[in-house]
């Protein structure tokens, strides 16, 4: 969830290729200046796109984390309103301001759409430059394994350690499920949702099994893309998604096919952007469509999370398609401090997503013996513990995994010439 937007599935395409190291005298000097300017603009636009991706990741991780934090620490809006009545003070204001967090699970479809975009972007760019390009499936899987599994293993061990402490402080939180070796292996092999439940208190791991399944099937999706085109692939996936929802999801079996459409939406965006002119700008009405589908998802949430998930995925896909054009034509973009801050959180969003729940459960067990509180303020304190802990986890575990994954990338032609 936290791969570079430009580097998720491989190294970026070279910005230029030079057949000879010597510039022929007949080429005017201005041509070199223009080429360097074009390279600079391309790099700046790419950086602006990555900035948008990281900011969306940071927002999604914080949204999901605080959504869970509020559930674990607080009594909930209905109970609070009944107790607070018509009182108006700083406590009630803070509590009521968290009302939109009731839809915090909307962060998950953001992750899925972004994941599809990031994974397919590099291959889409190569395919746009060379229609005969074929994906090296073995190398892709090796890089995904190196990127995901060391972090997952560390997160499972941390969950085991923290939940073991929480279990010794009765009454035990209802969030803690089985922490035995069987549940550990089910989650390690990404079978939660099919062969078992999520591990211990770490209920957020349900999405990680789907991500791993998306990666496992991606080479097939790429092969279909080469044969029938990405729009046709998206249509096929949409049909599979509907059938899977009817056959599996309603029986509480969580398999990637029930969520494949949201992930493929991101891949479709990557493909469309790779094959469109750099200066092409889409209509600002896409932001209106994004807001409309997100609002529809919030309304549908009352009837069930699954339908809301699909609507949110469409809304965030509309937003992403338009937001990726921020860098076009102006190079450095003009994002405000909020986007820059969210981008910082996006750097370690995967770590925050993986470890926040066992931290919240432990804090609740230590401080309140797992009882829900009337005050909303402790939830903010929980976040102040979880966010720095996630950053440390990122530095110690996730960053080395990212470097290991990067070591599997095929060398570019220029790199081979230098070695």
TrEMBL record:
GO biological process: polysaccharide biosynthetic process
InterPro entries: Acyl_transf_3_dom (IPR002656), Acyltransferase_3 (IPR050879)
Keyword Transmembrane helix: yes
Boundaries of every Acyltransferase domain copy: 53-395
Top-level enzyme category: transferase
GO cellular component terms given for this protein: membrane
A Gene Ontology molecular function term of the record: acyltransferase activity, transferring groups other than amino-acyl groups
Keywords: Acyltransferase, Membrane, Transferase, Transmembrane, Transmembrane helix
Catalytic activity, EC: 2.3.-.-
Superkingdom of origin organism: Bacteria
Transmembrane spans: 93-117, 148-167, 203-221, 228-247, 253-272, 284-303, 345-368, 374-394
Protein name stated in the entry: Acyltransferase family protein
Species of origin: Paraburkholderia phenoliruptrix
